[in-house]
Amino acid sequence: MSTPSYSRSLASAVKRLKLSPSIATLTSQQSRQLQHSTRLAAQPISPNLERELSEIRLPKAVQATYLAPLKRQPTTPRKANEPIETVCQLQLRSYNVRNLEVFSDFALRAAYFLQLPATSYNLPRRTERWTVPRSNFVHKKSQENFERITMRREIVIKEGNPETVSVWLAFLRKYQYYGVGLKANVFEYGSLKAAEEMDAEAKRVEELLGSIELEKPAKGMGQLGLPEKMVDQAFKASWGAYAPSSGAQSVPDGNKRVATVSVEGGLMPEKQEKKTKGEEKEGAA
């Protein structure tokens, strides 16, 4: 049973005291009146200076960012009901609307400067949901839901040169914005008389070459069995046949731990001299 408080000693009572230095509390003054700034800070601009600043024109590259991207129209004359050929369909996908808008705007501006007629469409969103267990121990009976929304936008190029379209796609691939995926469908149109067109192209190339004779490579110039080597080497390298200790019988150094390299002349110069001297002694004997 603990002793009562009145029977405790003075020393034990002093030990329980919390001594801290006295700190003067700073009182914060609050005012409900408006704080007016100085006269120099709130000095108004003269009308002439304000007019001059408003007349300064921004650079075209900066001014274009505040405007909608320009678009070109197809220029090939067509009949009334004749459809326009679609050359490329580029689909942009992202989980962030800001990234999608920035890169689609960038793609439309690049198509305008490459003289490609482009139009953009908003595709419906794709919503995916998953329900998984929360944990495998205490919370194994409770479930957790996850949701992912994919925003999509499509840019269609019509009546464009295939080479220009490939340059446009390569440019977008080089400066691709983070968090935006690209999927392109490229269409090429040709006539049904492909054989005749190839013959005409061959004649044109022959006329351009003139009397220049092209030498055909002989079979002995490293081309014997070349297709088989191209196929076999790629197949063997895919599963590591050319690595040390691979066990492949048809691969050099397949049964060795370290790949060896043959040196021209065989041994080192010093060992080569000793070997020749030994052979000379054996021949003299």
UniProtKB/TrEMBL annotation:
UniProt GO BP: translation
Would the keyword DNA-binding turn up in this protein's UniProt record?
no
Q: Which residues form the Small ribosomal subunit protein uS10 domain?
A: 89-185
A single cellular component GO annotation: ribonucleoprotein complex
What are the entry keywords? Ribonucleoprotein, Ribosomal protein
Basic and acidic residues: which segments have biased composition? 270-285
Instruction: Kindly list the GO molecular function terms attached to this UniProt entry.
Output: structural constituent of ribosome
Q: Where is this region: Disordered?
A: 243-285
* Record bears the keyword DNA-binding: no
| Family recorded in the similarity comment | Belongs to the universal ribosomal protein uS10 family.
Per its record, how is this protein called by name? Small ribosomal subunit protein uS10m
Query: Can you name the source organism?
Result: Cercospora kikuchii
